[in-house]
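Question (not urgent): is this output format expected?
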Amino acid sequence: LSRAAVVYLAWHYTGQAWGMMASFAHLDGLRVEPGERRLFRLSLRIMLVWHVAWLLEGEEAGGFEYVLTGAYQAASVAMVGAIALGLIGFARVRRRTGALPPLRFSVPWIALVVWYALIARYPVAILWVQLAHCLQYLSFPFRVEKNRRAVRADKTALSDGAVLALYYVALVVAGYGIFEFFPLQVAQAIGPWDPGHRIGHHFQVGFIALLNIHHYVIDQVAWKLRDPQVRQELFAHVAPG
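Got this back:
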C-alpha cells in the first residue's frame, strides 16, 4: 500500500501542477500550443519518475537494492533534461507571444523543481513540501466554493475569507482526528496483544496509505478540466453561464 501510494503521490503532484498551469493559462488568455504543451508535460513526467525513484531508493529489495540506487541516479541525471525541457517550453511561449509567460502560469512548474531540489538535499523537508502543495492547491476548491456561493446568492454574514478560514480549521481538526487520534486509539486498544508495537505501526502506515490513495483517486475524478461541469464551476466567475 505504501509503495502504491508513493507512485500515486508522484502522479498527483505532477498532474495537479499541469492542471494549475492549464487553468492559469486559461484565466490569463494564454493559448499553449501543442508543441509547448508536450514539452511541459514531458518535463513533468520525468519529474514523476524522479519522485518515485527518490522515494524507493534505499528500500529493501531482496538483495537488489543496487537496482533502486541506480534508478535514482539515472532519474537524477534525467532531471537535468526535465528542467531543460520546461525552460525551452517557457522560452517558446515568450518567443511566440513576445512577453514572459504569466507568473502564476509558471509558478506550479517552478515550485516542483524547487521542492524536488530541496528534498533531494534534505529528505526530511518532504513534510514542508506536502504542506506547501496543500496550500498551493487550496485556492482551487475555495474558488469553486466561492463561485457556488455566488450562484446561490448566499446572504450569510460570513465573508469569503471567513468561509475559507472555517474550511481550513475544519480540515486541520479532521486531519488530526483521522491521522493522529484514531490510529493512536487503535494502537492503544491492541497494545496488550502487540508488545513490540509492530501491528499498531503497520496498521497506522497502511491506514494512512489507504487514505492517501483514496484522496488521489477522488482528486483525479473531481478535477478533470475536460469535464464540462468542473470547468463551469471553476471558471464561473470569468465565464458566467
